[in-house]
Design a protein that fits this description.
Layout lengths: L5 E5 L4 E5 L13 E5 L6 H13 L7 E5 L6 H8 L7 E5 L2 H8 L5 H4 L7 E6 L6 E4 L8 H10 L5 E4 L5 H13 L4 E4 L3 H8 L3
Parallel strand pairs: 1-8, 3-4, 3-5, 8-9
Antiparallel strand pairs: 1-7, 2-5, 2-6
């Protein structure tokens, strides 16, 4: 996707979730806390998770380990947390995919994948809320979204969309935009935002 024929969207809502059913412990925490990020390292959710742990880690005086477990548009990492012991030592930092995926993937529901957004987790905090941003390679001759739409309409299929995950909030937002604008960029799948942004950058 290097060069000028590229288009991308960056967005994210990170929610800190904890395995439901954790029992109160007077000496909690007495061992390291494990935080799972179901997205690639370097992405917005990973950055948020590490920023939050810097603050949280000052209080419990216990080590906090952050692990990126990407794959399946966050389904793999999410399922691993849902299947962990509900003791408060395994956390999940994720985005809206935890609510969206069960409606998009037949194996993302509770019966097949072992987790359900409403039954398998307990929300303990909203970390951030941010807006979607459309970005293109700086060499592309456009300065506004409207200008990009007009350019894409003039060359159907000529430009690419760096998709960080089918069914992700970024993907759904982009597809709605393309449908409304009447443009059809070529979909290029990536395992998260970081590699898509690297290919979007000027050479």
């Amino acid at each position: 996707m290097r060069g000028i024929r590229a288009f991308g969207l960056a967005a994210g809502v990170a929610i800190i979730l904890l395995g439901a059913g954790a029992q109160a412990q007077s000496n909690y925490p007495n061992r390291p806390i494990h935080i799972v990020v179901p997205y690639p390292a370097g992405g917005i959710v990973d950055i948020v998770a590490r920023t939050v742990t810097e603050q949280v880690g000052r209080d419990p005086k216990q080590a906090i380990v952050v692990e990126a477990r990407p794959g399946g548009n966050s389904n793999i990492g999410t399922a691993s947390v849902a299947r962990s012991e509900p003791d408060g030592y395994t956390w999940l930092v994720t985005g809206p995919a935890v609510l969206i995926n069960p409606t998009l993937y037949k194996d993302a529901g509770y019966k097949d994948a072992g987790w359900d957004a409403m039954l398998g987790f307990k929300c303990v905090g909203l970390a951030i809320w941010n807006q979607s941003v459309a970005v293109v390679n700086s060499s592309l001759p456009v300065k506004t979204l409207g200008e990009f739409v007009e350019l894409a309409r003039s060359k159907p299929g000529h430009y690419n969309f760096g998709n960080p995950g089918t069914g992700s909030s970024i993907d759904l937002t982009a597809q709605k935009l393309f449908q409304t604008a009447g443009i059809k960029p070529t979909n290029v799948g990536y395992k998260g935002q970081p590699p898509a942004l690297i290919d979007l950058s000027p050479t």
